[in-house]
Design goal:
4-stranded mixed β-sheet; 3-stranded antiparallel β-sheet; 191 residues; rod-shaped; mainly beta; 14 strands
């Protein structure tokens, strides 16, 4: 007489820990096996079966998990560790201006403004604000500003913008004056 084992593993309950930030690693923990006879052994991507049911340090991607019960019945399931999008911040091209001029820095980020938990400009010298997305700069000399934006998970992005300040001021020298007492063009002045 041959008896067929009807109590075989038919599913799992995985808990997936998604990476918080772009480039971070994820994890999966099998918290329950549906069906079969325990104890269970687990395998990730064809590795040797083991009693350990949690797998960490996993880059984003698709993984095959196999579960083998005490009767050596095997169940396989595919799980996905999702990729967390990269935060990107972009400043405009570098700026050249004359001393005393100002320029608003219009920054673009790939996350909504409401998702930004912190904005830091460094250095803050000659900026209208050091914690806003689009400050106005009035630099007095050449300077490079660095911006860092951060979200609630602590994920961040950085960029920079350089200002080249020209100290050359336009000088106007009149080429004639008329000191004749009529009150018009009486003095020679350099502007």
């Amino acid at each position: 007489i041959v008896l067929e084992n009807m109590d075989v593993p038919t599913g799992i309950t995985p808990v997936i820990s998604e990476p918080l930030c772009f480039g971070d690693l994820g994890a999966v923990n099998i918290v329950d096996v549906i069906g079969g006879e325990g104890p269970y052994n687990y395998s990730l991507e064809g590795s040797a079966f083991d009693l350990v049911s949690d797998f960490d340090q996993l880059p984003p991607g698709v993984y095959n998990i196999a579960i083998m019960d005490s009767e050596e019945c095997v169940y396989m399931e595919e799980i996905t560790i999702p990729e967390t999008p990269e935060i990107v911040v972009n400043t405009p091209p570098d700026v050249e201006l004359l001393i005393g001029q100002q320029n608003q820095i219009n920054v673009n980020a790939n996350i909504p403004d409401a998702a930004i938990s912190a904005i830091t400009w460094s250095p803050a010298t000659f900026l209208s604000c050091d914690n806003c997305l689009n400050p106005t700069a009035t630099p007095q000399n050449d300077i490079t500003y660095n911006i860092t934006i951060e979200d609630a998970n602590g994920c961040f992005a950085m960029d920079s913008i350089a200002f080249r300040v020209q100290r050359i001021a336009g000088i106007y020298t009149p080429n004639a004056f008329s000191p004749n007492g009529d009150g018009i063009n009486e003095a020679f002045t350099i502007y």
